[in-house]
């Protein structure tokens, strides 16, 4: 393609709302275009890269026996009611009505639809296993869309669903997808980690998130370099503190004026924060968004709460909980802001972290302004409604598997795989007949890749201050020929010769034949991030051109023919 | 692919709601699946054919310099308000709100979005011409979705938009697309006609519809075999009757009891229907759907009204008009059901067909029960608000170009091209700077192909009582190997050999290795419509197989190697 004919509108300035490299550079390179908050279009170069990612996904899915289909983006509410998710899914489910007032949603995911297909089509065990997938535009009406393609309201996903006869077969299907994802993200040039993850609104038992490492990612992962432990911090189990063997001392009320924080009370009483009990107060909501109760969560004073673990322990969706208004809650439960402890609380659910019962003689709020209780002991002094691991695994904490110090990293969730089990087949009645003609529930898995988010993650990992540095496999074009002076006949001829030779070799090549200053062309080439640049300038008269890889800083003056040969070779090796 | 591993669920029975061949056969072949009324999913085989159509479109669009992009399916109302279509588009525009109450629609077409892109990106004449296109899921909330993919609420379209400096350049862009469409539909194996068409809700000056001929099509076209005239009946101009040279006779009221129809009154008075004036009564609606006036349309008694021409003459959208309640209208305008004429009517718009002023001494209703007026003459006795061609060109009518008798045919609208001119660039302010740095309006065209509808049209033209007969270019697989008895080792071995040889030759081949009766396999092969069938049965032991083309009835016993060679050859020739 000749750049003079191509619709590429690069920007010199950083768009106002863009904060991270992928957002800034994809906008500046004119590859994406914002329509409204969280809704983007793909311009010619961006769309080419996206289609390459799609093709890589397709190849690896097909290699594992996946079969591509396309189901509708608009989904009838009835199916979501069958699964129970119509009421459970929060406001990010983009709902609409048709002209007859019937309820629909724009699908954020397709478990219901695929389960419906399979319950209708599959009757015999001979039709299983089955893996169906689609690459499709999906919707999530985010409260705060941000970071460009990273958290948008309309986005492209590959979603696959596996259907098996048994949990053992699901293990195999899951492993196939896990392996395929490894191939896909490797081919896309990403540095990533598969980590254990929470199953969230999708449900199911097991899950791994594929996380492209990046400081700007919204996922936080904990991993151990001594063993293979790797999990999102939401999911990561914690090693509980060693149970104390101390004798239980008599409980004692102490005056602790103005010690509203753990730090204050520990300092005031000369205690380690580990000897205190921290309270966090929440209100919960029902499906209609009405308040329906209070929760007090207690963890060791030096710990942080893990909200995902808490909602899982409560078995409620994430959007059904929020920090409580302390005054309002006080009226109902007798909690006291800054001085809440488990003793004296009433009419609220008490959730206690799993290590607390093993600890002795903690200092807790007295539910009385300016007072704490010392030597509070679980069992003797109070009981909980729920005891569960609700604490966050922090960097430096002991690894729950091997005990070594855990590390943290940030990353972008580009894919996630789930063992759904029979959650949807049970809710929606998806059965197969086994060898003995007995009805059995189909065992499911689901597997997503954020295609547009993968594009952004690639840019996050592959850029410098001048622009994008596309890996060959997903570059919109593989080679750019920068024709320094299109008015110069020899230069134009040499550039055209290289262009034709590369086209013949099926190299995807851009010829920058625009009537622009050379500086503009070099800047644009760097911004667009085409992997190989061949510059045709004054040396053309002597049969010399400049050869440069975008990812390297050195340039070489070589012969035209050698440049052609080298370009063909590197494209063949890396495409 | 081995059919035992493939998700194909064929149906023996014709689904209840399916009336036409494409709907019946695509459902029976398990290629599409209905989710709710007007919303379908594509199963593996159907999706493969659809992707082939997409690829043909892509290639031909790219060959004309089209550049593929992808804009959002969800569109903000603001852009539609700028163009004025937010209020003009009827209830088939599927509207929704986001969580903040902001108005959006699911795009049925993308003029606004593409104009917005170009007004932001294009500043100089050097950036034009430009042709941007996308292949995308679109929405139209049809009142009566029917005929499967033919009139559905969610469908895939290719929509392209051209941007030019002048109307002359637009002519070239339009011709390029016109030519590309010819290539595309030819490659898809369709028999079609490009015909002049109305511009409808899209607007603009010129338009052609590409109509795949089919008895079940919803488009009616008029064409002339003596000249090149071809147009939708909505659009087709009519030759007006030769103006009469008769002298105007005095108007005369006659008693015509119970003659409510043209036929009745003509018989009663002994007149030719051509000597009568037919009235049709309508009510119109404003943007809010409130009644805002009445219309009486008059045509020669033997003619049919063309509603599209009438709404164009009135300059209102098609959904803003309906037949009037005669009693209600009578109260306001003094019309009289069955006896309405132009004289005596008031408070309503009178539209008269273009040939009426040239005709003399017509018989019209008297606006008085059981009375007509003879010798009514336009100009002398009444005036119209609008005089325009509002009549339908019917089969046998004289061709408006050459006078020969016109023929009618039915067809499926698979594509349409429009010269938009400056309708959108003017409304939305899309300018470029010319050579003299003066702002000029960008001149636009738009070009649509119903991709899913093309799939259906292909099936309408290529099927028999046993199933689909795919043209090679869009067949989901090119060859099917029917292994008669998978338990027979020799047969299985020969089938596998052919399968491997064809795979190596990059032929898309299905091996029917299912443990089903041979009759089931043959029936399924016919239903699925794979162009070439190689049957491996008892002859396999002697190296003989059966070779058959789906489109032909004869079968041949030939050697395995010849079957392989023939299959490879025909696939190469026709793919």
TrEMBL record, chains A, B:
Compartment(s) where it occurs, according to its Swiss-Prot or TrEMBL record: Cytoplasm
Pfam families membership: HGTP_anticodon (PF03129), tRNA-synt_2b (PF00587), tRNA_edit (PF04073)
Every Aminoacyl-transfer RNA synthetases class-II family profile domain range: 33-471
A GO BP annotation: prolyl-tRNA aminoacylation
Chief localization: cytoplasm
InterPro entries in the cross-refs: aa-tRNA-synt_IIb, aa-tRNA-synth_II, aa-tRNA-synth_II/BPL/LPL, Anticodon-bd, Anticodon-bd_dom_sf, Pro-tRNA-ligase_IIa, Pro-tRNA-synth_IIa_bac-type, Pro-tRNA-Synthase_IIa_type1
Catalytic activity: tRNA(Pro) + L-proline + ATP = L-prolyl-tRNA(Pro) + AMP + diphosphate
GO CC field: cytosol
Quaternary structure and partners: Homodimer.
Family: Belongs to the class-II aminoacyl-tRNA synthetase family. ProS type 1 subfamily.
Protein name per its UniProtKB record: Proline--tRNA ligase
